[in-house]
Amino acid sequence: MIFGLILAGGVGSRMGADKPKQYLEIGDKPIIVHTIERFIEYESFEKIIVLCPDEWIGYTRDIIKDKCENKKAADIEIITGGDSRNETIMNGIAYIEEHYGVDDDTIIVTHDAARPFINNRIISENVGKTLEYGAATTAIPAVDTILDCNNGVIENIPDRSSMYQCQTPQTFHAKQLRELYFSLTDSERGILTDASKILVLSGKKVAIVNGERTNIKITYKEDMIFAESIAKQIFSIRSATCS
């Protein structure tokens, strides 16, 4: 079985808004609703699960009901996330274990709620690469020079040709990810910046799926300008396709 986990635990402190960024609107819809609608288009999900802070569960349920145009949104589960990204994913796996069971073939596709321009191609390739390699993460080649710095001073300039910028989805076999996560020490868990590092620290392969420049994570105020522009282009393309 394949499950979609939409991670909606961000508080949006860098956005400076009065609510978490995933609930801000682009094109008259909350960002998280755009993300959910794209996930619904991938028809192989057994269930889509949204994980958010407990105090936002009711609000999330209401906006999905009011704003999501796809009737399948009524089947989405909304549960409480954790104190960190990886704890949130573990909560998702625990929920799947309780309600559906988890075995060696159970796959989870984890994605940022604040990346609303995900598409079916990226999700499908994530699942395919995970079946082939065991895990996958979405990334795009770095176009800028990357500086490795310490205390504001450059220590190293890596070869850009081998550098990638990580996006999401990140896709895993749920059982393996959970076992590897709980096998790490507290200090190892403390340096985790994303779930794929759980496998990297354990010597496992994580395949790269080519992302897209439009698969942006909305983090800063100026990102909303880019997002509105991308949303208009997507709406224009979809309208032309349907006409």
Automatic annotation (TrEMBL):
Membership in a protein family: Belongs to the IspD/TarI cytidylyltransferase family. IspD subfamily. Belongs to the IspD/TarI cytidylyltransferase family. TarI subfamily.
Protein name: Multifunctional fusion protein
Binding site for CTP: L7, A8, G9, G10, G82, D83, S84, R85, N86, E87, T88
Domain of life: Bacteria
Gene Ontology molecular function terms on file: 2-C-methyl-D-erythritol 4-phosphate cytidylyltransferase activity; D-ribitol-5-phosphate cytidylyltransferase activity
EC number: 2.7.7.60, 2.7.7.40
Keyword Nucleotidyltransferase: yes
Keywords: Cell wall biogenesis/degradation, Isoprene biosynthesis, Nucleotidyltransferase, Teichoic acid biosynthesis, Transferase
Site positions per UniProt: Transition state stabilizer: R14, K21
Site residues, Positions ribitol 5-phosphate for the nucleophilic attack: R160, K217
Annotated gene: ispD
UniProt-annotated site: Positions MEP for the nucleophilic attack, residues: R160, K217
General function of this protein: Catalyzes the transfer of the cytidylyl group of CTP to D-ribitol 5-phosphate. Catalyzes the formation of 4-diphosphocytidyl-2-C-methyl-D-erythritol from CTP and 2-C-methyl-D-erythritol 4-phosphate (MEP).
UniProt xrefs under Pfam families: IspD
EC category name: transferase
PROSITE patterns cross-referenced by the UniProt entry: ISPD
Catalyzed chemical reaction(s): 2-C-methyl-D-erythritol 4-phosphate + CTP + H(+) = 4-CDP-2-C-methyl-D-erythritol + diphosphate; D-ribitol 5-phosphate + CTP + H(+) = CDP-L-ribitol + diphosphate
UniProt KW Cell wall biogenesis/degradation keyword: yes
Pathway the protein contributes to: Isoprenoid biosynthesis; isopentenyl diphosphate biosynthesis via DXP pathway; isopentenyl diphosphate from 1-deoxy-D-xylulose 5-phosphate: step 2/6
GO biological process, one term: isopentenyl diphosphate biosynthetic process, methylerythritol 4-phosphate pathway
InterPro entries reported for this sequence: IspD, IspD/TarI, IspD/TarI_cytidylyltransf_bact, ISPD_synthase_CS, Nucleotide-diphossugar_trans, TarI
